[in-house]
Amino acid sequence: MCASTRIVPHMTCISFEFLRPELRGRDFVNGDFTPSELKSVLWTAVDLRDRSTQKNENFSYMRGKSVTILQESGMPDTLSNVALVTAAHRLGGNVARMAFDSNKTDVSDLANCLSEVSSVIAVSCRHQAALQAAADGAAVPVVSLGSEQHDPLTALGELLAVLEHYSYLKRLTLAWVGPCCARLRSFLQLLPPLGIHLRYCCPQEEDLSPEELGDLVGRTVQHHTQFSRHESAAEATYRAHVLATTCHQYDQLQITEKHAAEADLDWTFVQDLPVSRSAVAAAVHGDRQRSLVAASAGCRHWLATALLTELCAEHERRTDRPDFEGERRGVGIGSG
């Protein structure tokens, strides 16, 4: 393919489309996609956004189709819920909602029944096992809106915002400072396939489990990335590109202005809501050029739009493939 690309440059996009992974009918439960699948979703998100906002193109891939949001009782509406609802409407689809009690409901049977009237089922629940049960029982794609164990839509939406900022992903370093939570577990799944290195600093009482650490080792070896655990926020964030955290009350793990000053010159910041001042200094979170918190919310909408498109339809992309590997920027092997 490399030789063909040099001889006939205009064939580059066609070559990538020919190798496009087939995602129709797949589930998006914990973000455990291959590198080519993740890049395909991100590329589609960029393509849909650019053509919708710059060329006023409309897409109706969900016309005559419906998305059912299956939400466990007591689970709050989140930005992911909003992103999926607006994505379904943007694509011409309908949205229905149903609450369930995990103690009284067989989620697998419920998802199987909902498959008769749904094109996609989106699930928000406390336990990942319930989400997996829905995926096992459903005859249509199941998309995660988050559980207490994984939050892939939020994490991948943040990585789309990171891609938009840097124009590449491979060999970037993300520094996580804070307790282990659903977003971090999703980052463990997503970062290695996209070529992103990880540094993390978690409190001992809320650290990665031995099983999670073992899985991370396997993924980094498989995808030739790096990870390291650090005892302080200063060590973890030093020269890192992306500073990441979540709401917590560990004052000693606050990402400060000093940490940002000693990170990469072009550092960025991501965090889910709500924001806690014990997690990050106001100047870091409020930096309009570096903070990607608001941009990530917008990217989550386009990511949800891309997921519904990839899982339910055929979409011909016309936007150039993003430079995930940084090849057009000349990112060297030692960069990051």
UniProtKB/TrEMBL annotation:
Keyword Mitochondrion in record: no
Superkingdom of this protein's organism: Eukaryota
Uppermost EC category: transferase
Record-linked Gene3D superfamilies: Aspartate/ornithine carbamoyltransferase
A single MF term (Gene Ontology): amino acid binding
A Pfam family matched in the record: OTCace_N
EC identifiers of the protein: 2.1.3.3
UniProt key word Ligase: no
Domain Aspartate/ornithine carbamoyltransferase carbamoyl-P binding stretches: 32-163
GO cellular component term, pick one: mitochondrion
One BP term from GO: citrulline biosynthetic process
Keyword vocabulary terms for this entry: Transferase
Family, per entry: Belongs to the aspartate/ornithine carbamoyltransferase superfamily. OTCase family.
Protein's name in the database: ornithine carbamoyltransferase
Lineage summary: Eukaryota, Metazoa, Ecdysozoa, Arthropoda, Crustacea
